[in-house]
Amino acid sequence: MEENFANKSRSEFEAMMKEAGRSVQTALTTQHRSFDSYFQDLLNKSEKALYDAFPSIYGELYTQNMKVFKDLYSELRRYYRGSNINLEEALNEFWTRLLERLFKLMNPQYHITDEYLDCMVKHAEQHKPFGEVPRDLKVKATRAFIAARSYAQGFLVGSDVVKKVSQVSLSHECTRAIMKLMYCPHCRGMSNVKPCNNYCLNVVKGCLANQADLNTEWKYLMDSLVVVADRIDGPYNVDTVIGTIHMRIAEAISNLQENKDSITAKVFQGCGNPKISTKGSSSEDKKRRGKVALEAKSSAQALEMLVLDAKGNLTALKTYWITLPGSLCSKKVTASAAADDKCWNGMTKGSYLPEVMGDGLANQINNPEVEVDITKPDMTIRQQIMQLKIMTNRLGNANIGNDVDFQDASDDMSGSGSGDSCPDDVCGKRLSKSPSTRQPETHAIPKQSGHGVTGASSRSLPSAFLLFLWVAFIAAQHLWR
What we know:
Helix content: 55-70%
Strand order of the largest sheet: 1-2
Number of strands: 4
Number of helices: 19
Structural class: mainly alpha
Strand content: under 5%
Shape: rod-shaped
């Protein structure tokens, strides 16, 4: 009987935890899916516009160099999806390859070797053959892609943290306290009497002490996502930058065509005249001169709505971990406020007198309902706190246009076990706590100043320092065990 009550109370409480976690996961994954769909569609439309317009505008200049353009969009997608690609180098490589191909096509009367092309690139780049487009696009596209990638990844990391934390098992002491809260009234013939609200809060705060320690870093992550969302819809202008890549490329090619003669003369002056080719020259380039008129369909309004919706959801989720006990208690467990003196207080029907404990592991030292060892933090949850720190650091860097290599955030460990029984010593007594026998010690990760990303330098820690923190954290696991 007692074992059945223990198992049933544990199952019900864990189900309530997972249900609450699923709602948060759904909110975050929905935001990720919406933004990801928008961003991928933006990139796809730009690529399609290039494929549709360039053959008729540039003819051979395009058809003989299709792979160069396809490779560019492929690299951009790979970067956004998290591949370890240096975006600036990828863009530089695109312009170099394009210049080599176009220079040969625009000078078909010459036999141009690979060695000559190397010399040509060095001399031509000094004179900006594509105008200011490569530099301008590199600055704007890099910032936009860094922000978009970090923003999308932030939602996934948040969802993954909730998922892993929701799978942490209840401790033996917690299971006993939950059983006493939910089923001891049945043992005493008071099945219609619901638990007192403050009594429930102390039980759940004790059970979810480690989870509440996620609060600080969780809030920083939510705040950082909001700030980067403003960047995406504001200064970084993702809609315009990504949606007009094809137009900037067309502008660059037009600049090269207009300056072909002067660029060629300067290259010949620095590299010498290449040999005359035995092949016949083509007049294709001459047929394809003139300004290019391409249109870009704006989806700025769609992005604005996405950001507004995301900011509303992120703000609502900021206090999830510290409001969870109250949410669980009010949802299915406790009596109404009007019945404060007629509720189950853990021993009988009446008022509940002990004060409500604070949030987090360190505040449970004198919890009258759940015995919590504050010297042994849950390692799975500590790992997830570190994942939140790392992701917030990435967002902080994205906020100021800095790129940070993405790391695997898939650490997974199991929590502690659970217990049973409902004897009189559980249902009829409060836990006796002696402050002299246990020191108020906590292993929460120390608070850092300047959290969030409201300023240019906020939380933009060097990657090497994060690596040092991670190594120290892993070493500390063995000491705590």
